[in-house]
Amino acid sequence: MEFNFSRNYFELFELEAQFHIDREALANRYQALQSQFHPDRFIESNDQDKRMAMQATTFINEAHKTLRDESARARYLLEMQNVTFNTEKDTTQDMNFLMAQMSLREEIDEVDSQEDPLESLDKLARQSKQEKLRLIENYQACFNMHQWNEAKEIVLKLQFFTRLQQQINQKQEALEEKLL
């Protein structure tokens, strides 16, 4: 069994290294790679091939997860340009953005007291999605102009919106469970 671990994620999925990707091509290539390298296909193989299949599948899954997620893909593209991230220390320094995010989180916490909590959450989700789209446009512009620090700042903000969407989803599930 052979697998080239030196390819970057875009090369692995035969995609151009850019932010906007063909999601259908990503999904199709993922299925093709999974069917080619899935460990179940190597049950009768020697230990080395079994181990390689496991490592290849792990690499494929990580690449797929990264390219599928907009925030992770944006970060990966910057890392390909040697921009580094420190998950312990890096955070946005934009105080207006931080204040706006605190306000959004408070709105999520207070949604239970709204007349229609689910509608209020939907409104917050739409608002979050619009802001995320605006950030993605800005990221794309900064990336194209090689403004790495500005693009990195936007990636840090996009990560916030990923966490915010998770918080909205959790709140929505809790509310729906309450209604059952």
How far apart are the termini?
51 Å
Low-confidence stretches: none
- How many helices in DSSP terms? 7
| Whole-angstrom Rg | 20 Å
Biggest β-sheet description: none
Shape annotation: globular
The string of secondary-structure elements, in order, is HHHHHHH
> What integer is the average pLDDT?
94
User: Quick one: how many beta strands?
Assistant: 0
Helicity range of the residues?
over 70%
Which structural category fits the helices and strands? Answer: mainly alpha
**Beta-strand proportion:** under 5%
Short description:
The chain has 180 residues and is mainly alpha-helical. Helix content is 71%, strand content 0%.
Report on this structure.
The chain has 180 residues and is mostly helical. It has seven helices and no strands. It has helices at residues 9-12, 23-37, 47-68, 70-80, 95-109, 117-144, 148-179. The longest helix is centred in the last third of the chain and has 32 residues, at 148-179. The radius of gyration is 20 Å and the shape is globular. It starts with 8 loop residues before the first helix and ends with a helix.
List the defining traits of the structure above.
globular, 7 helices, mainly alpha, 180 residues
Task: Give the topology, please.
Blueprint: H1 9-12, H2 23-37, H3 47-68, H4 70-80, H5 95-109, H6 117-144, H7 148-179
